[in-house]
Amino acid sequence: MIKFSERQLKIPRMCRPVYLVTGGMSKFGRALPEKRTEELVIDAFTEAARFLNLSPSELKSYIHSAYYGHFADHFGDQLLGEAVIHDRLGLDPLGNVGIKTGGATGGSTLWEAFKAVASGYSDTVLAMGWERMDEVPTDEGNHYIACAADKDWETPLGHIYTGYYAVMAQKYWQVFGKSEDSFRRTMAAIAVKNRGYARFNPHAHGAMKITIEDVINSPVVAHPLNALDCCLMSVGAACAILCDEETAFKLTDTPLRIDVAAGSHTLRPADRRDMEIPLLPNESSDQYKDLGERFPGGDRYPGFTGFLAARMAAYYAYRMAGVVDPTEDLDLVELHDAFTISDIQTYEDIGIRPYGEGRDYVESGDCYHTNPHTGEPGKLPANLSGGLIGNMHAVGATGIMQVIEVAQHIWNRWAEMHGDEKKWQAFGREKPADWKNLQVVGAKRGLAISHAGVGSHVTATILSHPDHQLERRA
Amino acid sequence: MSGRADRGTVKIVNGRYRPSGHFHYIDANTPIYDESGKLWGVTNPRDITHIHTYGGEAPFFEALKDGRLLGTKCENPDCDYVGTTYMPFRIHCPDCLARNTVVDLTKVANSTAVIHSFMVTERTGAFNTLPKPIKFINVEFDGVDTILMGSLAVGDPIIGQAVVPIFKTQDPTFTILDLSWVVKGTDASELPAGFSFG
Question: Which pTM value belongs to this model?
Answer without folding.
Answer: 0.96
